[in-house]
Every structure is written in structure tokens, then in C-alpha cells.
Amino acid sequence: MKRVLIISQHFYPEIGSHANRIKHLFLQLKKKKYDVTVFTAEPSYPNKKIYSNADFWDDESLNRENNIMRINISSRKYSNSIINRLLYYIEIALKLIFLIIKDKKRYDYIFVTSPPIFTGLVGLFAKYRYKTKLVLDIRDLWPESLKGVEVFNYPIILKFFGTLEKTLYKKSDKIVINSLGFQDHIQNKAGILKSKIIFIPNGAVEEEIALKNREKNDTKKIIYAGNLGLAQNTLLINQLVPLLDEQGIHLTIIGYGVNKKQLIHSIKDYKNVTIINPVTRKEVFKIISEHDLGLVTLKEKDVFKTVLPGKIIDYMTCGVPIVGVVDGYAKEMIEKERVGIVSNTPDPKKIVSIIKTLLEDKKLCKEMSERAQQVILKNFNWDVNINKLVEYMK
């Protein structure tokens, strides 16, 4: 039986696409009869206290798992300060390295996921410590995304991070990407062959694909589910709320992230908004499925043209048509698969017009809903896509 060590800052029971991706990877490799160990941090995203709620620990098989090793971290929640967050990342990386030094096992493969890039460096350390092969999972381009959020402007440090990024690409034995938009950047940055890269997107397992049986009534409901962070256009959501209110359209936000508090404060007087604190993935899917449309936004920066936000996959899994304010790869995917409509401008009035068009065309929405779940089964199915990694590991 081959042994795999997964190194990830986030893991079950944390919310968010990072933890969910690694949870699925762990379970899929176990199903394929690999001996899998996880080195991770204790759950803390978006803050530690929510995981005192037993509802988040809803997978008994994982609760009983002996091969999940967690490090303690001193920070209790994510900081708005980039400097503080970098220190937080460094603390986790150093403690993971110490865990690796103490570990006496041997592994056939190290699977490490980045960003943060410091976790990637832990994986590189592990490659040489265990004298084995390194699979590098890239979920976001870093430090490119750091430049995109425009809150960290230290050219010398960014150049240093860029050198680390290039080193990771070169030294890894295989690179896994969750967005095809990353492929050209990685090849050009490190001068590597396309054959070194495997595309395994975020996805769902078949039992997560909900049949949308909600009876239609006169309520018009749109949802935003996910991170309200530095990359997402939360200002646009703020601008949309009064316009949606005028049209009698209800917005549900299941959100977390550094901009959540500010957004909630700015829209607190509107009656057409429901704010829901973070809940389990199962509950999120249930709530999403009760809505007519799903909203996704990203800021207008080149680096964000390469990403495929996890909430797009979640909306499609639930059979909910997408209203997108995105560009690049995400826009191409939504339009190619005909699972929603993308605005070519962040103009709130244009976006409300798209929302109204979709809400009034029940036939089109039904077609988009059915097509979305078919696309998930075909292209974003963990049970199928894991075979790309297993084929390499053979």
C-alpha cells in the first residue's frame, strides 16, 4: 500500500473551498486504498470559536481518523493586516516543519497545497526530509493574487516571493491546478512542460448533487455564498442591495471574511437582505438550493481572470443559475456551459437587469439548472477526476 502525506493549512471541519478540496482529496485517496496522513493546523478559519459547535464536526469517519495530525496556533482569527497574516502563515509553516522533523514515517508521495506559499515551502522541505516525490497543488497564483488585492506593496518582498514561487514549480515532481487559467502562467514562470501539470478542479461527489424540488412561488431569491474578502467586489454587493430592494428581490448572504463586518453595517437598514453566519457545507447546499440565482463577484484585476471561484461549483452542484461579475476563465466557463449570465461591466443597474431577465424566464432558468448539474457530473466530479492523480501515482 502506497503512503501519501498531505500537508495543508486548512482541512475538515473548516469551511471554505480550500478545506473542502483537501477533505475530498483525502477521502478519495483512501477509497483508492492509499495510506493517507494529513499534517494540518487546528481549525481556525474564519475564527476558532465557531468550531466549538459540534455541528461542524459532522463526519464521524474523519472524527475517528488517527492519521490527521494538527498543530496548535496562537492566533485566534484571521487578521485584516497583511503583515499580521504573513506572521500567522510563518508560524504555521515553522510548526509544520517541526512536526515533519519529529515524524518517523516514510511516504511515497508528498502532496502539498498552496497558497499560502509558506505551506508550499514546507512541502519542499518534506520532499528532501523524506527523500520522496512532491506533488504541488496550486489553488491560486501567489504572490500574483497578493498584488491583485492591492494591500501589500513591498516590491523587494514581492520579488522574493516570486523567486520562491518559481523554485516550487521547478522542484516539484508534479503540479496540480484547480483552474486551467493557471496553466500558461506556471509554464511561462518556470519554463516547464505542459505534461508536468494536471488539471483537477474543485468539484462535488455525486451524493452532493441536489435535485432542485423547491416549489416556485412569488418570492424572488438570489444568494451570495462564500468569502467576503479582499478579492471579492463587496462594494458592488453594497450597491446592489437598494436596487434589488426596489425590485422586490431578496438577497441572502452566507458570508465570512475580512470585509463582512463592513458590508453588513452598510446594508443593515434594508429589509430585503438576510445575513446567515457560517454553517456546514451540507447546510450551505440546502440553503443555496432554495434560491433562484447565485451571485459571484471578483475585482477587475488580471490575476483574478485566471481563477474559478469555488462558489461557482457550489451553485452548479445545487442547480442554481449563476449571475457572474467575473472575467477570464470563470466567465468563459459560465458562458461556454450556458449555466448563467455574466455581466461585462460591474455596473449595478446592468447586473440587476440580468437578474430580472433570469427571474422572469423560468424556462431558461430550468435549462441552466439541469445543464449545471450535468456539467458537474461530467467535468467536476471528484470520483472521476481523482483518477488523474492516481494514474500519476501508479
TrEMBL record:
<dbReference type="InterPro" id="IPR001296">
    <property type="entry name" value="Glyco_trans_1"/>
</dbReference>
<protein>
    <submittedName>
        <fullName>Glycosyltransferase family 4 protein</fullName>
    </submittedName>
</protein>
<dbReference type="Pfam" id="PF13439">
    <property type="entry name" value="Glyco_transf_4"/>
</dbReference>
<dbReference type="InterPro" id="IPR050194">
    <property type="entry name" value="Glycosyltransferase_grp1"/>
</dbReference>
<feature type="domain" description="Glycosyltransferase subfamily 4-like N-terminal">
    <location>
        <begin position="21"/>
        <end position="203"/>
    </location>
</feature>
<feature type="domain" description="Glycosyl transferase family 1">
    <location>
        <begin position="207"/>
        <end position="374"/>
    </location>
</feature>
<dbReference type="InterPro" id="IPR028098">
    <property type="entry name" value="Glyco_trans_4-like_N"/>
</dbReference>
<dbReference type="Pfam" id="PF00534">
    <property type="entry name" value="Glycos_transf_1"/>
</dbReference>
<dbReference type="GO" id="GO:0016758">
    <property type="term" value="F:hexosyltransferase activity"/>
</dbReference>
<keyword id="KW-0808">Transferase</keyword>
